[in-house]
Amino acid sequence: MSKEEKVDNIFSEEIFFLLSGAALLIAVAVVILFFVFITRKNKLLTEKAISINSYEKKMVELELHALRSQMNPHFVHNSLNAIQYYIQLNDIDQSENYLTRFSKLVRQFFEYSRKQTIRIEEEIDLISNYLALEKLRFEDKLTYEILCDETVDKEAAIPSMVLQPIVENAVNHGIFHKKATGKVTITFSQLSEDTFCVVIKDDGIGIKESQKRAQHTLKNHESHSSQVLDERLKLLEQIDNWNVEYTIKDRAEFSDEEGTIVTLIFKLPN
Amino acid sequence: MTVTAILIDDEHKSLAILKNKLERLCPNIKVVGETQDPEEGIKLITDLEPQLVFLDIAMPSMNGFEMLQKIPQPQFEIIFVTAFDSYGIEAIKHCAIGYIVKPIDSQDLIQAVSIATQNITDKTALQKNKQLIENLGIQSFQKKKIVIPCQEGLEFVKMENIIHCEGTDGYTKIHFQQQKPIMSSYSIGHFHKLLPQHDFYLIHKSHLINVNYIEKYLNEGYVVLQDNHKLPVSRNKRTEFLNMIRSV
User: Fold this and answer.
1) Which strands sit side by side in the sheet containing A142-148, from one edge to the other?
2) CATH number for A105
3) pTM score, two decimals?
4) Which residue segment(s) compose the domain that B229 sits in?
5) Cβ B17–A84 below 8 Å, yes or no?
6) Among chain A residues, CA nearest to B60
7) pLDDT in tens, B81-126
8) How confident is the model over A167-175, as a mean pLDDT?
9) Residue A179 DSSP code
10) Do B115 and B171 fall into the same domain?
11) What is residue A216's three-state secondary structure?
């Protein structure tokens, strides 16, 4: 073996060690990176699963809340009570009329609470059905009007279960405590191509007075239902990109009329 | 026994239903007055001194409880008539006062009227009504008193003083902290419904205990209370019971 060959040999041996060292390092790095990647991925997946889970849970909860706030036990029992009255009077037509109306409304409550949106036409039908039943109870003490601008597309979508609880508040907190006849007016109008507005106005005792009374009786159903509404509107914004602006005002504060006015501006998701 | 009665409800339909049912089902009730206005109700009660008042809870301007508070000596039996009022019904039950729900069931009405008719001879209405008014003004559940009918008359006991209730043949023996036990003709199930669930736990079909008085739990399935009573916990309730006391 010549001297040169020997040097060459030592040299290639060194290179071999260096290369294998580097290869080992790279392999270890790859393995570490792989593990980091896997754990990251798993973590992300679980996080996502948890958030989907909690989202679904939230949805179910809200559906239940909404159904509860619509199927207000006061309303249910008072309606049935009024039907009992017509049965006692032997007024078969009226008894049947109100019984079927009531049953139709309950069916709508169940059906719509499962949907995110319904058609505006369906919403108007639900509200007029609801108010007709309240009128059965309040008789001459309650009048109502539902107005819908011609420009509003009645086939368009509206988030379900938003309006009825507000209308119910107008009746039960505004009109109920008023001595004279009260009126609830609901107006649908189109503001622009993708924005429409619903105004629920009553000439009852006003939200200020109604809150004062609620404090007296130790109950706060109203704040509870407005909390449910807030949550529902927030969720609609997060999930479906519905932008809903909601304002509630005591009419006595800016005019010489009494009552409460609730304005909802719905901006369609893009 | 003929009983004079006044009906107060803001809805004329409800008044009509009740009056019609009373005429048909409760011939001993003589309706001497009726009104849709609570303010007028106070006046009717003062002028006519009825033995029984049918009173709606949810009314505009003044609810049934507020109306009752405005009467200095409410000496009449009351049967509350309500569509739905969980808070109100709870308070009424605590004071052993009658109530019926709308739409009115005939059997419920007959029963409530017959109990009220019996009570009129006992002359306990004033005490019960005053207790109801007192309870409505107290926030804390434990500080409220419940009214328990027993042999000698009515017992008014603070809920927080009850250590445990023991069911025996449809009767219930109630044990207290510094008072000798009393016997009630209510069943243990009745007390289970009456007392707040957060504090009272049915550990066994005949033992309802106030969890605030638990001294210790023995692994063989017994609890020892502060009055040294050692009571069995049903096998099927042990897990739930242990979870509950851990969370308290």
Assistant:
1) A142-148, A182-192, A195-202, A260-267, A243-250
2) 3.30.565.10
3) 0.79
4) 158-247
5) yes
6) A177
7) 998 776 788 889 999 999 999 999 999 999 999 999 999 988 889 9
8) 91
9) S
10) no
11) helix
